Amino acid sequence: MKEYNTIDDFDVCNKTILLRVDFNLPLDKKTLKILDTTRIKLVLPTIKELKEKNAKIVILAHQGRRGSWDFTSMENHAKALEELIGEKVQFVDDIFGEKAKHAIQNLENGNILFLNNVRKFSGETEKKSAEDHAKSELVQNLYPLADIFINDAFAAAHRAQCSLIGFTEVLPCCAGRLMEKELTTLEKVIKNPVKPSVFLFGGAKFSDLIVTIEHILSNKTADKVILTGLPANAFLKAKNYNLGKVNESSLLKEGKPEQFKEIKNVLDTFLEHIYLPIDFAISENGKRKELTLNDLPSDHNLFDIGEKTIEKFREILTTAKTVFLSGPCGVFENPLFQKGTKKIFNFISESDAFSIVGGGHTVAAVEQLHLREKISHISTGGGSLEKFMMGEKLVVVEALKNAKNKKIMNCA
Ligand code: 3PG
Ligand code: MG
Predict the structure, then answer these.
(1) Which ligand 1 atom sits nearest the alpha carbon of residue 383?
(2) Which atom of ligand 1 is nearest to the CA of 161?
(3) Which residue ranges have their beta carbon within 6 Å of ligand 1?
(4) What is the pLDDT of residues 270-307, one digit of tens each?
(5) Burial class of residue 270 (count of CB atoms within 10 Å of its CB; 0-12, 13-18, 19+)
(6) pLDDT tens-digit profile of 200-225?
(7) Which of 71, 207, 239, 319 measures 20 to 30 Å from 140, CA to CA?
(8) Widest Cα–Cα separation across the chain
C-alpha cells in the first residue's frame, strides 16, 4: 500500500484532470529549439493511459525561470508532445484567464489541452505553504473546473511552488505513473541497493557533490564511488596533485578554495572507497593526446579520462550489482573526448547490474548513445534526485501523502 494515491485509486473516465508535469527542457540558446525530449517521453505512459481511459487532460508545466533566457512559452513543448504521442494537443496562450477556462470547459473525453508556462504567473514561485498556495488566483480559477489533480513532475518534486502543491488542498489528487515509478525505484536503489553498489559521478560540477558523496558512503548506500570529470579533478587537487593552472582555475570557477579541505576530510575517512582517474586526455594541435598522473601539471584542460582509467573503472564496475551514474566522464559534446563516456556508459548498459542514470546532461548522453532501452531506470530528476539521495523529504511527495490522509472528497 502506497503512502500516496496513484491513478489506480480513481475512475478517471469522463473526468477533467489537471496534470502537472516537468517539461523543463534543455533549449538551444539561439533558436530556443528543444534539444532533448526525454522528460516528455517518460510522461507519455501517464498521458496515454488517461487518454485511453477517456479523461479530459489539462497539462500544466514550466520552462526556465523568470528573467532567464530559456523562460519561454510552452507552445513548442505542446507541439513536441503532439508529435511524440501522435494525437492532437491543443495549446492556449493562457494559464487561468478566460481563454484557458473556456478551453477547459470545451474539452471532450480524450482531449489534451496544454496551458502556458505556469511561471508566467508571478505567484507560482512565491515561498508559501500548500494551504496558502491554494488561495492563489491560479488554483482558485482552475480547481472548480477540474475533478482530479495528478502530479507527475518528479523533477520538480523539491519545489514548494503553487501549481505543484496548491491543488492538493482542494482537489482529490494522486501521483502520475512517472512519479510513482521514480519514487518506487529510487526507494529501492537509494535506500536499499543490491550490493555491491557503485556510484559514478562526473560532469562539470563538484561543489554540491561533496556532502552527497560523504552521505552515501557514511550510510553505506554506496560501497564504492568512482569520480571522473570536474569532481575527479577536485578530489585529485585535494590529494595535493598539481593539475596545472588552467585546470585549477576551472575548479575555482565552480567551487570555493575552502572546499578542498572538506574533500580532504572525506578522503581521509573513505580513502579505499573512492576511485580516481590515473590518466587523462587533452587536446594538442587539434588531436587527442593521453597523459598520466605523473605527467601533471598540464597546461591543457583535462577533457576526458584515458585508456588506463577506463580499464581500471571497468574492473570495478564488473563487480557491481547496482550502478548509479550521474555526469559524463568528459567533455562529451566534443567527439575527441567522447571515448571515456562512451566506453563506460556502454559497459554499464551491457552489464547485469541494475543501472540508474540521473541528471539532464547524463540522460542526454545516454540518449545520444542510444542506450536508453538498456538502462534499468532513467531518472528525470536533477535537484530532486540529489535531495532524495541526501535522504531529504520532497515537498511535493509530502503534499501528496498529506492529501491521501486528509481524504478530500473522493470522486472515484
Ligand atoms: C529542474 O529542471 O531541475 C526542475 O524543473 C526545477 O527547475 P528549477 O531548478 O528552475 O526550479
Ligand atoms: Mg534545476
Answers:
(1) 3
(2) 11
(3) 22, 24, 65, 155-156, 159, 382-383
(4) 999 999 999 999 999 999 999 999 999 999 999 999 99
(5) middle
(6) 999 998 998 999 999 999 999 999 99
(7) 71
(8) 70
